[in-house]
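Section 5.1 Outputs to date
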Amino acid sequence: MPEAVTRPAAIRSALLASLDPLLREWLPRQRWFAGKGRPVTGFTLVAATELLPHDGAPGLLHLLVRAHQPDVPAQGAETHPGDCYQLLLGVRETLPPWLAPALIGRPAQGPLAGRAVYEALHDPRATTVLLEAIRTRARVGRLRFEGHADHPIGAGLAPRLVTAEQSNSSVIYGDTFILKLLRRTLPGTNPDLELPLALAREDCPRVPAPAGWLLADLDGPEEPFVLGVLQPYVRGATDGWELALRMLAKGEDFTPEARSLGRATAEVHTALGRALPTVTLGHVQTGLLAEGMSERLDAAAQAVPALRPYVPGLRSSFRALAALATEGGVWTAQRVHGDLHLGQCLRSPDGGWSLIDFEGEPSKPLAERRMPQPVERDIAGMLRSFDYASHSVLPSAPLWAAACRAAYCAGYAEVAGRDPRTEPVLLRAYETDKAVYEVVYEARHRPEWLAVPMAAIRRLSAPADATP
């Protein structure tokens, strides 16, 4: 690996100024940009590292850039502190035709004036640099590349970018490893690295163990930023979402897969419960949990008017949870996946299931994503995913989703010794909370999908004894 090229602060400032107009146009169009619907008002350069110098040759810039946007809460307008994004930018004098779709633009001024700046993850030369840095455990400027001793990385693995829509970016290396680069980054321990490492210590086969990772050490009291995680690639695996849609479209029975997936989920939960501390949620903690759900409902109704007629019925699920806690109900909370759905599961050719992507919901603060939760949170996410699959293929086929939900819970019970349906109040509250989140997400990012969570909203807002 080359040494980092250090640039004076004035040049760093000029670099950001030259990229500003290009990023304002390009960044909001990316699938992983979190601030859709609000204009970008400016940028702050958090860190800049030259992985490859661009003086007279194809260059590679690693940037951490904070995008500033106006925030519009219920009362007035305030300044949003800005999300920090990880960017990998290639720099060339002339862009070859095969990289034309990756072009971001040509700065009109500054140190990159006139050169082609592009999304470097489309360039195998650039992505090879990342793997080589992890393989050699390099330190480049503020970037620290780490590798796991139990997972040696061979040289010369050909990279290819995963082009499917994702909330982050992934590169596969020779069908041996997959590197997930976190696009929206935060300082601190990221569960997408923390939890797979903990599960590896428990020898849990359901989660690929990290082979390497990428960190950024910045000035000040902040903890390092986790920027990427390299894991073994599950060859020939099928995404759970795609598998469910394919089988549903063919009229094939998915319940055996759902049952097996329930067992896999329980195995991961059991291992996490052994690896990391658990807590007991009593009256006060559960009351705060229900209150938070109710507050998210109010905020969602402000953002999506179509939700407002259903608010009273939805709120009853949260009130029922709080009331049950008042009567003495207690629950165990532990570390969980945090954003579990079919798309976070891989079925290998031998029929086994793996769980991936432990980042949690990226829109939530890191501290919240790392809090212990009842396992019903994950289970509710998977139940909602079955509902999504049925409505996306056959909107009039609720029985398919119901059968899969039952099979998944039964499979979970086979391993955990407890069927999650024995906690109907807690499970319903979490499913309602998830559906409310989905409504806001779809309204902002995929309006054409809004009908799917709204169908669940209508079902969940009905009295509990009327919900199938």
